[in-house]
Amino acid sequence: MFAFARSIVLKDRLSNEGLIELDVTLDEVGQQWKEQVLEAAAERFERRLTQEVSAVRIEIAASRLSIIRWVAGLLIAHAGVIIGTVFAIMTFLVNALKP
User: What does the alpha-carbon distance between residue 9 and residue 12 come to, in Å, rounded to a whole number?
Assistant: First the structure.
């Protein structure tokens, strides 16, 4: 803030040097306040970010498990189809080779 922006009454009571000192003090306090606010906001942001990333990791882990279950089930079904096909072919050949 600038000393010339203050009211005349304040200037009369504090003088020019007093206004300058008041401005310097207010600037210092304002700077400290800004730093404290930014620090608190950064801490809250980091905490929230950590929570959200943890939630995403849990969802990814659950998705992986679901995909692994589906793949295992499909492999078992595929093996069943192959075994059934081989059994059908063997049955057909045995019946075809009977006199």
Answer: 5
CA distance 62 to 20: 63
Task: Report the alpha-carbon distance of residue 62 to residue 69 in Å, rounded.
Answer: 11
Question: Could you give the number of structural domains in the chain?
Answer: 1
Q: What's the whole-model pTM score?
A: 0.51
For residue 33, being part of any structural domain is answered with yes
Residue range 14-73, pLDDT digits in tens: 787 887 888 888 899 999 999 999 999 999 999 999 999 999 999 999 899 899 999 999
Asked whether residue 89 is assigned to any structural domain, the reply reads yes
